[in-house]
Amino acid sequence: SRRAAALRVALLEDQLVVYFQPVVTLPDGRITGAEALVRWQHPAEGLLGPGAFIEAAEQTGLIVPLGAWVLRAATREAATWPGEQSVSVNVSARQLREPGFPSLVAAALTESGLPARRLTVEITESVAVGGGATMENLRGLRDLGVRLSLDDFGTGASTLTLLATCPVHQIKLDRSFVPDGRPDAIADAVAQMARAFGLEAVAEGVETAEQAARLTRLGYEKAQGFHFARPMPAAELRARLTTTV
Ligand code: G
Ligand code: G
Ligand code: MN
Ligand code: NA
After folding, report:
1. Structural domain of 199
2. Is the pTM of this model over 0.80?
3. At the N or C end, where does the chain have fewer CB atoms within 10 A?
4. How many domains does the chain have?
5. For helices 132-144 and 101-112, what crossing angle results, to 10°?
6. Pocket of ligand 2, candidates 21, 152, 177: which has the most ligand atoms within 8 Å of its Cβ, to mutate?
7. Average pLDDT over residues 124-128
8. Closest ligand relative to 39 C-alpha
9. What is the ipTM of this complex?
10. What is the pLDDT of residue 244?
C-alpha cells in the first residue's frame, strides 16, 4: 500500500519519534518510569499516532525494523534519565516470533548502557498464539533480566493459561476496566489475580483522582494516564525527571 511505502521511507529518513508517558507509583504519584509510544512526524500530515500506521506495519512486516528502531531509541533515551526509572516498550506478536529477538534486545541494552532491569517489554495476550518460538524468546528475555508486562490485560484470550505458563513480572489492566463509578469488580479481580501469581499490578488510562484512589484501595502499585501525565516528547520528560529528583 502507499502508506506502507511511505512508512518505509519514514524509517530510512528518521521521521519516527518516540513519545514517553510517565508511569507513577500509587498513591504518591512519583514517576517511576515511562512507556515509549511511537509517533510518525509525517512531512504532509503532521504528527500521526500509532493508530494511523501500526496495523499497516504489522501487515507488511515493517513492524520488525520499526520495532527494532523504537527499542534502540527508547533504551538510548532511558539511559540518560537521572535515576532508576524504567522504560516500557511495546512489542508486537510478530516481533516476538522473530528468531533472535532476545539478541536484538541484548544489543540495544549494550549499545545504550541501560541495565536490563530498567527495561520492560510489553506484550499482549495475542502472543499466546505464537507457539514455541514465542515462548523461547520470552524465556530468553527473562534470562537477560528484562521485565515482561502483559498489556491490555483482560481484553484478550487464554489469560489464565498464559499467566501460568509465561514468565511475566507485571500485568497492566486495560483502560476499559478502570473503575468509572460503576462496580469495580473486574479491576478488583485482576488485582487479586496479580497477587495470586506474584505479579505487579499496573492500571492504564487513569483519568481522574477518584479512579486513582479506587485503584490504590484495590491494591494497584502503579498507574498511568491523563490524570498524571500525557505522552510527551523525550526532552519534556527528561526535564521533569531532572527537576524533581
Ligand atoms: O500512543 P497511543 O495511545 O496512540 O498508542 C496506541 C497503541 O499503539 C497502544 O496500544 C500501543 O500499544 C501501540 N504502540 C505504541 N507504540 C508502539 C510501538 O512502538 N510498537 C508497537 N508494536 N505498538 C505500539
Ligand atoms: O500500549 P497501549 O495501547 O495501551 O498505549 C497506551 C495508549 O493509551 C497511548 O496511545 C496513550 O496515548 C493512550 N492513553 C494514555 N493515557 C490515557 C488516558 O488516560 N485515557 C485515554 N483514553 N487514553 C490514554
Ligand atoms: Mn502498552
Ligand atoms: Na495498553
Report:
1. 2-240
2. yes
3. N
4. 1
5. 20
6. 21
7. 81
8. 1
9. 0.95
10. 56
